[in-house]
Structures are given as C-alpha cells and as structure tokens.
Amino acid sequence: MKILALGAAGFIGSHLTHRLLKEGHIVTAVDLQSEKVAEDLDHANLTFLQQDIRSAGWDLDGLVRDADLVIDLIAYANPGLYLRIPLEVFRLNFLENLKIAEACVRHGKRLIQFSTCEVYGRTAASLQNAAVADPEDPIHATFSEDTSEYILGPVAKHRWIYSCAKQLLERVLHAYGLEHGFNYTIVRPFNFIGPKIDFLPQKEDDIPRVFSFFMDALLNGTPMKLVNGGVNRRCYTYIDDAIECTYRIVENRGGVCDRQIVNIGSPHNEVSIRQMAETMREIYAAKFRDPATPLPEIISVPGEQFYGEGYDDSDRRIPDIAKASTLLGWEPVWGICETLETTMRYYVSERRKTAASNG
Ligand code: UDP
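^ thats the input. predicted complex w/ uridine-5'-diphosphate below
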C-alpha cells in the first residue's frame, strides 16, 4: 500500500514506520524532525518530508489523494504541555487534525486516527461520595470503547483540554462516518512505552513523560519525584505489542476495523507511579548501576508545584481489550518488568554511547 504517515517520526510513528517499511509498504512520512527515523531514512520505499503541518506551503490534499491509507499520529501528547500551552494543544490536536480528516473525507481515503485513553478521563470510583461498594475493584477503572462514560475535571483544570480536543475530534470522525460514509479507525493507546519514548530532560523546564524523568534521575543519582505521592495508576504497554496491534489495524482484513474505535493496551501491566519508580530503581540497581553514582531517593512533590496551576490527573485506567482480541486476534505479550527493563536498557546504552563519543 501507499501510506501517508503524519507524525511519523515521533515515538509511536518511528516504530510504526519501521514496521510498515519492513512489510513492504511505500511510506510518505511527514514530521517536524527526522531523528527518530534516522535508521530508515535511506530506505528506498520511504519519502521523508520535514514539515510543520501548521505552516503554509505543503500539499496536504495532493499527499492524501496519492495515498491508499492515511495514518495521523500528529499530537502534543504530553501532560506537561497541556498545562503550559493549552491553546496550542487544542489547535494542533483538534483544528490541525481536523484538516487532515477533512482531506481524507474529500478524497475518500481511509484514516487511522491516533487518539488517546485520556478521553476516558477519571474513574467514577475516584469522585467524592462515589456510590461504589469496592472502589478498588478494577471494574471501575476498566474502559470500553463503545460503552464507557467519560468524566473530565472542571475547565480551570486545563489538563483536560487535551482529552476534550481528542474527544471532539473522535466525535467529528464519527459524524463524518454517519453522514458521509467516511471510513476511519480510531486508536486509543494506553501508555505505550519503549525505546525512543521521550528525550531525557535537558533543561530545567523540559517536562517529558514520567519514564524519562525517572530514567534521568537514575542515570544522574538525583531524586525520583512522585507527583502527589505517585498514587495514580497506569497500564504500560510495550511498543512492540502496540505496533503489532496497530499493524493488524493497518491490514484491516475483512474491513473489521471500519468505523471502529480500538483500545490498545496491556491490562495486566498496571502499576502505581510509586511502584513504577521502585521497580525501575530495583532493575537499575540489579542490572545497570554505575557504582560511582548513588541510587536516587524517591520523594513526593505536590502536583501544582511540579506542573503548575491547572494540574489534575487521570487516577486509573485499564484497557478493555476484548475488541482488539475479537476483531484482530491480538493480545499483548510483554509483562511490566521486561517492558521497563528493555526500555531502560536502551537509555543506558544511549547514555554510554554519548559518554564514549564525548571522550
Ligand atoms: N509523574 C510523576 N513524576 C514525574 C512525572 C510524572 O509522578 O516525574 C506522574 C504524573 O503526575 C502522572 C503519571 O506520573 O500521574 C504519568 O504521567 P506522564 O507524564 O508519564 O503521562 P500520562 O500517563 O499522565 O499521560
């Protein structure tokens, strides 16, 4: 297939592009920068366009017209940014993505739109005076694509602008499906993790996702910071599992993913952020530790101090993956410890390479 991959050199995009090329597809990849797809840049079937989709002078319509399938991964998908630049998060994640979707509608092209598990928001069990017998029962945190309700915080908690923008985009795609027969598949990723997830923080004000903060702390012996005690929980999904499922959505045998929303995640890999910090520190001590660097302490910091005003959080989210299993025969295979260790190994080896090249 001729595939137009937008946001192809981000974390998920770079792994997906590699897989698409390996499977023999012809890929036109668009992104702001090419660093994460460096190993594939010379591939005969890859055309890489370095382009900010917000600036004028690129031929979105022409590229969509020439493609058999469009995959849109363009997003600001990092909570630090929802707090700092909420308007830009709305513009990119809704307004700009909408232009891509509408080009697909115009040219009758199938679109795979990456969305987010953040659309589910918070659990009902986390609400004040929640009327649930056992708030710990995973049933309250297990989200299904077509039946779960969404609970977001107030407007003043601007973290939710991301969730809201993505939700609106999903609703517009659904409406185009209803009114114009538009063919899309929406993917809701649950905390994908693996090599190249984020650059480690370089400057005081860099806010990557939690893995990179913890990895940086381990490499430098500085404190691992738990926001509000690290009680919130996530299900981490190894990127190879995620790409396998995504690739089956690309293939879409029998049209099973037409106008479907699909959760991709590892329900058995749930950890609190505190457990994640402790597990990473144990793995680091056992496998990677440089004896010259002390193991970091784990400390708690208030959310608003760490992120600034407007911070709120999703407390717990477990994917219901029955749909991916039924439609695609997919189940994740990577456990949480091997997921963390393999991702950590990549960053340790990158750090050693950088140290060696700096002499
Ligand atoms: N977090 C933390 N310490 C950090 C960075 C993040 O405890 O150094 C917490 C954050 O408050 C959230 C969780 O880790 O509860 C996951 O945050 P991340 O930025 O990785 O993305 P999210 O899963 O919320 O999209």
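The pocket of uridine-5'-diphosphate is lined by residues 79, 191, 209-210, 213, 225-227, 230, 232, 234, 273, 313 (CB under 6 Å).
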